[in-house]
Amino acid sequence: MTRKYFGTDGIRGRANGVITPELALKVGQAAGLVFQRGEHRHRVVIGKYTRLSGYMIETAMVAGFTSVGMDVLQLGPMPTPAVAMLTRSMRADLGVMISASHNLFDDNGIKLFGPDGFKLSDDVEQQIEALLDDSLVKKLAASAHLGRAKRIDGASERYIEFAKRTLPRALSLDGLRVVVDCANGAAYKVVPDALWELGADVVAIGVEPDGFNINKDCGSTSPDTLCRKVREMRADLGIALDGDADRLIIADERGHVVDGDQLLAVIAQSWREDGRLAKSGVVATVMSNLGLERYLAGLNVQLVRTPVGDRYVLERMQTGGFNVGGESSGHIILSDFTTTGDGFVAALQVLAVVRKLNRPVSEICRRFDALPQILKNVRYRSGKPLDDPAVQSVIAAGEKRLHGQGRLLVRASGTEPVIRVMGEGDDRDLVEDVVDGVVSALGRAAAA
Q: Which domains are seen in the chain, by residue range?
């Protein structure tokens, strides 16, 4: 079934373009109706982050939920993983995060979590979609059964204590100087406070949100700012989160970026040594570097690959019984603790290894040499050039040339008319030649 509103991570688009007050109100009503199960008083928690449009969307959603009889607990600015955790902790029927992740301020979105703290399944999203274009007037609550809304104090402290409890009881960060870049986003208060409480010497940047500067030249999508600050402050490491704090990038003491693949290797090896790694495996997407796969194989740890997207990583973790998974972008899921990606909890696991080994981050977080990886995009106007027999023939020939020395991945984008061609291997010249051959074939098919 084709979906009109929900994408791979909730509903997202330009504020007052795609994401209007009318849509937000209808989502509140539709989701509220779908999650009214049982005779108890139903309630929803709503978190947001620091985009200007958050005020508009939150107000509209509160009206939607209360109009169908749900009570609303407003958390204020809060990381996405904190909303997921608090949905479970506060026994809410539904959790909402008003978020467009790493996008700039113009966009916004709506992410929904079930009472178990997990993102909604496709089936449940389709139930909500089925109501969005219908008139719901006859399904609204009677006047005496309207919901109430109130702001919740102490939600930040709950999340801080939760995150701290993911560390060994006696662990302290005393003596570590940590630069943290909160991307002027949802974590701008909770993460610096938590690190300070753990004993770190904290240098916080990206903590002055004004409604417009979220993810702008800061955070995990612009790590140069973090790297410069680490060098300037002679810090032991830096942590960059994205706007809603569900992903991270780390900088070592030299100001060099450490991506999600390296962090997966660090956590997986540490957990394996401690007997905590489930199924002796890690879940990652098809975009993770072959160097990670080879490194884990040397530890007798399997790398299980999924399509691009954290929801696919999580699904595979659940069905396969794995407890570590993630993406090279830094979206890391540790299911012993969380139901979604949590950049701060993942950072704390890396900090625990740093403290345990007592060596520079540049040594601890460089577990393997990444293989040369080349990614090129081919834009097309219509048709399905990827299905062209000539293209398939070139792809097959490229895979044969790289067999045993690398891999080739060709996939259509799920969000725009683009085909992505990624190749990686030991021989950069060979990889580039294979990728260019596929790109040329796709170009000819697209022009035909």
A: 11-153 (3.40.120.10), 158-254 (3.40.120.10), 258-343+360-364 (3.40.120.10), 373-447 (3.30.310.50)
**How many angstroms separate the CA atoms of 103 and 215, rounded?**
7
CB of 191 closer than 8 Å to CB of 241:
yes
In the numeric block, the tokens 């790289």 are attached to: 402
Does residue 326 sit in helix, strand or coil?
A: strand
Query: Which residues have C-beta within 8 Å of that of residue 170, sequence separation ≥ 6?
Result: none
Contact 128, 4 (CB under 8 A): no
Phi first, then psi: give them for residue 325, nearest 5 degrees.
Answer: -160, 165
Q: Residue 141 gets which letter from DSSP? A: P
Q: How far is CA 1 from CA 126, 206, 414, in A?
A: 8, 41, 15
Q: Quick one: which of 155, 147, 136, 159 has its CA closest to 43?
A: 147
Please indicate whether residue 101 is annotated as part of the active site: yes
Give per-residue pLDDT as tens, 208-263: 999 999 999 999 999 999 999 999 999 999 999 998 899 999 999 999 999 999 99
- Are the CB atoms for 64 and 22 separated by under 8 Å? no
Q: What angle (nearest 5°) sits at the alpha carbon of residue 103, between those of residues 102 and 107?
A: 140
Q: Taking the model in full, what pTM does it have?
A: 0.90
- H or E element at residue 375: strand 373-379
Nearest to 250 by CA among 172, 163, 179: 179
150: nearest Cα among 60, 43, 48: 43
Among the options 53, 67, 99, 101, which is catalytic?
Answer: 101
